[in-house]
Amino acid sequence: MVNNTNKEFWYWIELIGFDHSASDFGTAEFLGRLAQKPTGISLLFSDIDFVNLHDSSKRGIPLRPCDCSYGGHRQSEERERQEWTGTQLVGLVSALKKQGIKVVFSLFNFFVYIGDDKRAVYGDFISRNPELRDIAPDGTKGLSVNVLKRFADGRFYEDYLFQKIKEVIDCYGFDGLQLADGLSSSRPSLENSDFSDDTVSQFFEWGKAENGNTFIEKMLSVGVLPTVGSEDGYRQRRDIILDDFRYEFTVFLTERWRRFYAKLHDRLVCAGHTVIVNSTWTRGPFEALYRYGLDYAKAFEKGGFYGIMIEDVSATRAIMSDEDQGGFHLNPEERRYCVYEYDLMQSEIKTYLPKVKQLTMSSVKDTQEQWDVLRHAPTALERAILRRSNCPVLTENGYANTSEGAWYCLSDSMRQADWEIISEKEGVANSGDSVSGFSGAVFLFSETLLYPQLNRYIEKRAYSSNLIYTALTTAGLTVGGSATTEGLARHPKKMSVIAVDPGLMTAAEQDALAACGGAVVSIGVRAEKLGRPAFEANYGLYDVCFYGTVFSEGALQELHAALSANAQKIRCDSFSNSEDRGIWTQPLQYERHTTRFMRMLADFINKACALPHTLPTEYECKLTAFWLKSGVLRLLITSDENTYALPKIEVGLPIVSARSRTKYRGYEIPYEGSVFSVRVPPKGMEIVDIEVRQ
Q: Within a 10 A sphere around the Cβ of 509, how many other Cβ atoms?
């Protein structure tokens, strides 16, 4: 067992992955399969009543089936579900900690599971406290606990929850907690979430404190009442809030989650416990805010959290069925390109939380949810591993990689050979020098834009920064990485920057952008501080401005003619906020330009800014390009094809040598002048390091 990188390796696993009949509870058997020593293990308890019903005096009694396996499933590929006791759980935790491994526990906010007799088993706690259940859009009770609600006597559930979590940690000897789905953020999206009397009363309390009686009177005047007496009244109130007060209700939820996280910090982090929090349903800052009412910056404003577990599902999303997507249909183009939104999500979160450690979920297999990316989409898994270790971000502290380690989901029933393959990929992914600069275009992120873009999207279904950047990436723009305005200001280096709505940024942010020293492409609200652009035009949705001497007048005029001729818009279907039933699996709908328009724009930027780019061939591949401190140009080449791809790539400088990091050492990359070619596996990635003559 080796650990030859400075990365962390965490294993998310159920009790069914261990053996309570063994003297060491199966720890030696499990650890013996691994190719690197774990930093930590998170034991998954899928039902929130593991905490709600905890009684330290009854540690010797059997745990429930849903505590012993995810959802209480009866058998894995490895063994049948065993009946564990709390005393045996203490022994397992102790055995793992003796190996120098951190041990945390994790749980979801479910309170129901399917028993062995195929009948639903409801938790005793929620039966006694039904007021804590989420309420569905039609006014019926949901099947999960809403952690922001209050007991019937007015006490906040979170106060009870954190006290019980502390008791569980102390009772079983855990190092801490992984706050997982439904607890780190709401399980239902905002449109499908809770508009109960409790939640709306809290909304009224917030509204009065923030905006005074005028806001309350406005809500009352259009029929928003703090209490209703029927399901019809509930539905009507929900629809009015979503259609008339969606922005205000979202801001209210961000404050509510801020208070929740502040208590989590004060009760557990300050007590010295390891606390790791799941990201919000695979979403970056904008979509976490719009879809779930959570603002990452507010949630993590108190330091001290061990890290955030980034839910990267890029390896599984494209192969999931519509039923797996919550019934939403992904069209072929959405399936083809959805991986890029997860690349962007990781770097976007890092720009908003630069000081928070990111541990990236690596989807391998899940017996309960019935997917197995290790065997069914191995090139997609490899691509995710390679990408998360080569995803640079520039912040005020310099260049950093987004991910500081892997979080393997789930880790039971894996063979030694499986872990050896994964470890080999991890070693390749982590090879090479640190980043010294960007060769591709830089996406600029600013926290200042979050709420103005949220308000604009609610009102007009207008673009946001992440939507524009994703569209440009899928259109073929060569990406270097992402940056904050503080990063541009503190580490000035000539680079090509794409900025959305710079005119809405602060004066200091605009100054940093103006001083970046390279080409700037501004999309959206322009900034006067950037001076006079070499070219500007509006194609029906937003202004497009080019700054810098690399943009020649003749080329810009040709581009303008081409864009004008292809400026058709894809209009967003008109629907009210109350009619939206979206969850994270449904792509955001917004008014946008066609793929052809974005490809013309991306191709022009690639060539005008002399970015490495693919030459026209039958294969569609995307590039990420950045410089290493050794002077080597690193290229990540991602294929969107279902076959092997052999793209031809122009790097813009004479090639001295080319080495594949992902193939065997004897593999020779053909190159001539400044162009090379490499074979890329279906839906996979290759990493090539190029030495060039400057």
A: 24
Residue whose C-alpha is closest to residue 305's, from 164, 186, 184, 149: 184
Is the pTM value of this prediction over 0.85? Answer: yes
Q: How far apart are CA 142 and CA 679, in angstroms?
A: 50
How many distinct helices (H) and strands (E) make up the chain? Answer: 23, 31
Residue 122: pLDDT above 50?
yes
Q: Are 415 and 30 in contact (CB under 8 A)?
A: no
* 415 DSSP 8-state letter: -
Lowest mean pLDDT among 135-144, 322-331, 479-488: 322-331
Cβ neighbours, 10 Å, residue 112: 16
**Distance in angstroms (rounded) separating the CA atoms of residues 168 and 48:** 12
Name, in order, each residue with C-beta under 8 angstroms of 192's C-beta and a sequence gap of 6 or more: 136, 137, 581, 583
CA distance 610 to 223: 58
Average pLDDT of the residues in 350-355: 97
The three-state secondary structure class of 454 is helix
Q: Can you say whether the dihedral through the CA atoms of 84, 88, 89, 92 is positive or negative? A: negative
Token output for 301: 């404003």
For the chain, give percent helix, strand, coil, nearest 5.
40, 20, 40
Which residues on neighbouring strands pair with residue 687, listed in sequence order? 636
Residue 575 CB burial class (10 angstroms; 0-12, 13-18, ≥19) = exposed
Single-letter code of the amino acid located at 481: G
pLDDT at 581 over 90: no
Per-residue pLDDT reduced to its tens digit, 486-499: 999 999 889 999 99
Of 658 and 325, more confident? 658
Strand partners, 395: 398
How far from 100 is each of 155, 175, 404, 419, 475, CA to CA, in Å? Answer: 39, 12, 19, 20, 47
Query: At residue 374, does pLDDT exceed 50?
Result: yes
State pLDDT tens for residues 295-310.
999 999 999 999 999 9
Q: Which two tokens stand for residue 470?
A: 């994703």
Query: With 60 as the cut, is the pLDDT of residue 2 above it?
Result: no
Q: What gap in Å lies between CA 60 and CA 350, rounded to an integer?
A: 43
Where do the DSSP E strands lie in 487-620?
497-500, 520-523, 535-538, 543-547, 569-570, 592-593, 613-614
Q: For 328, list phi and psi in degrees, rounded to 5.
A: -85, 135
| Contact assessment for residue 617 and residue 492, using Cβ atoms and an 8 Å cutoff | no
Please tell me the distance from the alpha carbon of residue 300 to that of residue 280, in angstroms, as a whole number: 13
**DSSP label of 82:** P
